[in-house]
Amino acid sequence: xxxxxxxxxxxxxxxxxxxxxxxxxxxxxxxxxxxxxxxxxxxxxxxxxxxxxxxxxxxxxxxxxxxxxxxxxxxxxxxxxxxxxxxxxxxxxxxxxxxxxxxxxxxxxxxxxxxxxxxxxxxxxxxxxxxxxxxxxxxxxxxxxxxxxxxxxxxxxxxxxxxxxxxxxxxxxxxxxxxxxxxxxxxxxxxxxxxxxxxxxxxxxxxxxxxxxxxxxxxxxxxxxxxxxxxxxxxxxxxxxxxxxxxxxxxxxxxxxxxxxxxxxxxxxxxxxxxxxxxxxxxxxxxxxxxxxxxxxxx
Length: 299
Fold this sequence. Notes:
Elements: H1 2-30, E1 34-39, H2 59-70, E2 73-78, H3 86-89, E3 94-97, H4 117-128, E4 132-136, H5 159-164, E5 167-171, E6 175-181, E7 195-200, E8 203-206, E9 213-219, E10 233-241, E11 244-249, H6 255-258, H7 261-274, H8 286-289
Parallel strand pairs: 1-2, 1-3, 3-4, 4-11
Antiparallel strand pairs: 5-8, 6-7, 6-9, 9-10, 10-11
């Protein structure tokens, strides 16, 4: 009996020690700062929120930096496409894009250096292998391929568009529109449900991936201008790209959108999910919540 008690006591002591060590390891891992690269090269049109003046941070960075500090994320902000090397890519947990145009082209609206072809390939491979991606607004106005008012099959699209899950067509005048929250369980979306209205430069989008899990739907009823003469379509979504986690929202053109609680709540949730610090349902629902998403507006 005495030997049994001794054995049980040793087992108990070992279990407590193991649990303490495991808890410490988990705690340390949770507090390891996530590293984020905010890339905002404008090979095409340069938006005001990413325009750098007098070497001061762009407006979007001034919003992102305190958010990152609050959540213990380390943010690096750049327009320089040469950062996309395998060695640099390995340093980051997720990539935040506010970009336009073909990022491998030397010409740009902001004088920045291009991403190399090898850098683009290494970046996409890194997302596929498990890195996170967060796309704002014109991240869908990047790496176009094919006719603007025509859809392309996945094999015809640029690999970047397949990673993102959708592509810019055009936009018309800025106006109020309703965002319908179709997944309030996504991190940061609960406070936005069931819907909210915001004035924004709304993108008309195409080439949606059939595996998208839509979070916000752009309700087109009541909107004016021809580019919105179409059925409701996805405006914010997530999907898996290989092992990687991809989040995109069409919002982010206007400064007052960046300062709004709705947008900030959504992007915090998107970043948390992209780096793997939050869970979310990623079951494809695009055909359920936006069955006519690929109906394009008139030219």
